[in-house]
């Protein structure tokens, strides 16, 4: 790989890593006060922090330690100042979707006398039809469970440390939250919450794993490989001739293959680690992409000579595989963003922006190439300033023909 090729590829990779690093750093959508308070309460490297403005204004912060599967959570919300009682709930649902029934909940209760109480609850279908909700055992271990009032934030806050069983997939975690007013006479029974829209939209499926798999695939399969195709198609002769186009093309494709293959390997590992959730179609697409990309890399090693009769068929196969690879990669990246429930306010617009830029550049170069082809093919000299019609005689040709040719006949004086 040439130094110029390395410099180009390094710049592209650094640019996109910087973009995605910036989006990840600023992916917290909770208030600065709540984020600061969470860090002071030992949620140092916060994995997830979000304020649900349209759902009771609840704020939730989480810190996941993947190796030990320990999840530290902090949940805060304001109670109605006019009411003397209230309750705040947060929980996880191990089922296929985020909903109230089946949720293993932690609930903090403010009693009539101003005391605070906290308990664990298993939300069943009986609760939904109006039966009493009383403390019960849940299926994960909880420690450091507390419920208190923070005067600085004016929030009632739940804090706890949870060890997640394997059936809770951290890449697709269903969490539920709720705020209510009325409490039973005993002080351990949260009554039915209000029936407004703000209360019914209180569930979400989130991904607590880092986005390394997605970032590597977007950079490798979704960015570098298309750039390599654009270089090979448009930097060879027209419209941007470059003597080192082949070096750039090979460098781009090789780097894209290495980065994309690394992301694919991470995805294989994630698939095996998530025993209770599988995405076979996404995995099959990934294997197909890796296979096509490997074939493309092999072409660089087994390239026929210029006069080899198989060279034409090899080039056709190379082009078909290359364009198929680009299409399947785009589809699978979009599918992965949808499956993993990544932050749509950053991931989807970022990738669609990359895709739109590459498509615009590709189409612009294609239009210029076809315009030149039509000029050369049909002699459209009026549209092409650098070309003349075939039937027009070269300039000064008539003058040259009219010149007096030298003769050996002596001139009579």
UniProtKB/TrEMBL annotation:
This is Cytochrome b561 domain-containing protein. Keywords: Electron transport, Membrane, Signal, Transmembrane, Transmembrane helix, Transport. InterPro entries: AIR12_DOMON (IPR045265), Cyt_b561/ferric_Rdtase_TM (IPR006593). Residues 390-413 are annotated as: Disordered. Residues 1-27 form the signal peptide. PROSITE patterns: CYTOCHROME_B561 (PS50939). Gene3D superfamilies: 1.20.120.1770. The chain crosses the membrane at residues 214-233, 254-271, 283-300, 320-340, 346-368. It comes from the Eukaryota. It is found in: Membrane. Its main location: membrane. Residues 162-374 form the Cytochrome b561 domain. The keyword Nucleotidyltransferase does not apply. Residues 390-403 have a biased composition (Basic and acidic residues).
């Amino acid at each position: 790989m040439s130094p110029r090729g390395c410099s180009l590829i390094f710049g592209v990779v650094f640019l996109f890593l910087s973009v995605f690093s910036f989006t990840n750093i600023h992916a917290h959508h909770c208030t600065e006060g709540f984020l600061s308070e969470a860090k002071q309460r030992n949620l140092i490297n916060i994995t997830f922090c979000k304020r649900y403005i349209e759902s009771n204004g609840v704020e939730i912060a989480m810190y996941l330690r993947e190796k030990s599967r320990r999840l530290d959570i902090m949940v805060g919300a304001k109670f109605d100042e006019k009411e003397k009682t209230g309750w705040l709930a947060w929980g996880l649902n191990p089922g296929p979707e985020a909903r109230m029934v089946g949720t293993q909940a932690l609930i903090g209760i403010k009693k009539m006398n101003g005391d605070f109480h906290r308990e664990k609850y298993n939300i069943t279908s009986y609760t939904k039809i109006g039966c009493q909700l009383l403390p019960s055992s849940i299926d994960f271990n909880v420690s450091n469970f507390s419920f208190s009032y923070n005067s600085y934030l004016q929030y009632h806050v739940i804090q706890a440390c949870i060890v997640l069983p394997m059936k809770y997939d951290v890449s697709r975690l269903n969490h539920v939250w709720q705020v209510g007013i009325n409490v039973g006479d005993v002080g351990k029974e949260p009554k039915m919450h209000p029936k407004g829209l703000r209360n019914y939209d209180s569930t979400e499926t989130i991904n607590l794993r880092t986005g390394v798999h997605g970032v590597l695939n977007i950079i490798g399969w979704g960015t570098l490989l298309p750039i390599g195709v654009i270089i090979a198609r448009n930097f060879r002769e027209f419209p941007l001739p470059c003597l080192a186009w082949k070096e750039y093309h090979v460098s781009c494709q090789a780097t894209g293959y290495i980065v994309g293959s690394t992301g694919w390997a991470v995805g294989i590992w994630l698939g095996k680690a998530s025993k209770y959730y599988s995405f076979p179609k996404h995995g099959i697409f990934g294997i197909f992409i890796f296979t096509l990309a490997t074939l493309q890399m092999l072409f660089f090693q087994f390239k026929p000579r210029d006069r080899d009769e198989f060279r034409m068929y090899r080039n056709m196969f190379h082009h078909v595989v290359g364009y198929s690879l680009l299409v399947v990669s785009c589809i699978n990246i979009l599918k992965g963003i949808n499956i993993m429930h990544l932050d749509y306010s950053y991931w989807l617009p970022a990738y669609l922006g990359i895709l739109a830029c590459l498509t615009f550049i590709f189409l612009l170069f294609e239009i210029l190439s076809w315009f030149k082809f039509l000029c050369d093919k049909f002699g459209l000299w009026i549209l092409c300033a650098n070309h003349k019609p075939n039937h027009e005689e070269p300039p000064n040709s008539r003058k040259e023909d009219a010149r007096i040719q030298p003769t050996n006949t002596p001139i009579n004086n």
